[in-house]
Amino acid sequence: MMAMRSRFAPDRGLTGRMLLTMFLLGLLYVGFIAALIVLLRSVVLIVLVVAALLVAQFWFSDRIAMYAMHGRIVSPEEEPELHGVIDRLCAAADMPKPQVAVSNMDLPNAFATGRNANHAVVCVTRGLQRRLDTEEMEGVLAHELSHVAHRDVAVITIASFLGVIAGLMVRFAFYSQLFGGRGRRDQNTAVLFAMVMGISAAVYAISFLLIRALSRYRELAADRAAATLTAKPSALASALTKVSGEMARIPTEDLRTAQAFNAFFFTPALSAGTTLSNLLSTHPSLEKRLAALAEISERLGKGV
């Protein structure tokens, strides 16, 4: 969970939150599976299936994300400017250069994915390239590279997938009782099903809130790291403002298609509007991110 060695400033707050989130989720799911083993005799099968899916998603997370976002790896000859910015940032951060990819989507965004620094990909969309200048793009890419350096991409991938387990368990319980044959008419079936549903719903709700809290903090941590590395918090703030404003011009259907990857994006495809939405959002509000960057700018101006 510790950040890889680089010049990105270590973020003990982020590291501590990642460790705590994974610890709590681990306890939560150990208890969840133990309860289901007591309630459902054949739960071992679904546990094995889910474990296999988790390993597959973790191992191939970069390929899955690239396929879903229509991204492709590009060479320095194809995208010299983009590679040039990443080369400079990686040299400044003293970190391995990830693979560089471009998505043809007009949605202005960027994301980093991959299970570790040696299998990382940083992808930007054509929409982002068209809308940002070089300094703004540098801020966004520094933000994404900090996710790689802090290894929070892998943590959020695992944590997000664990939340799917509860939903799969509910479906398994439902169909096993619906088509189970023996005991299907037993009066205890309804009670058993209600117990499984209740436990699964509670586990999903708790894991959802834990993951969202970690996701919001990691975005603030990436903003801080990027602003410190580039010493240009105003450029990152400009990119945030510009991209958030442009989201309003993107067709809603395209935004909803990309919403599944909100946790990995530089900015969310659909922004939160209410207090409850902010609580459930994968990202802090734009106002909070801009305020944090303004503090960094003031601190850098004072030479602190």
TrEMBL record:
Cofactor list: Zn(2+)
Subcellular location: Cell membrane
E.C. no: 3.4.24.-
MF terms (GO), sorted A to Z: metallopeptidase activity
Top-rank taxon, per record: Bacteria
Domain Peptidase M48: 76-296
Assigned protein family: Belongs to the peptidase M48B family.
Protein known as: Protease HtpX homolog
Lineage: Bacteria, Bacillati, Actinomycetota, Actinomycetes, Kitasatosporales
Gene assigned in the entry: htpX_1
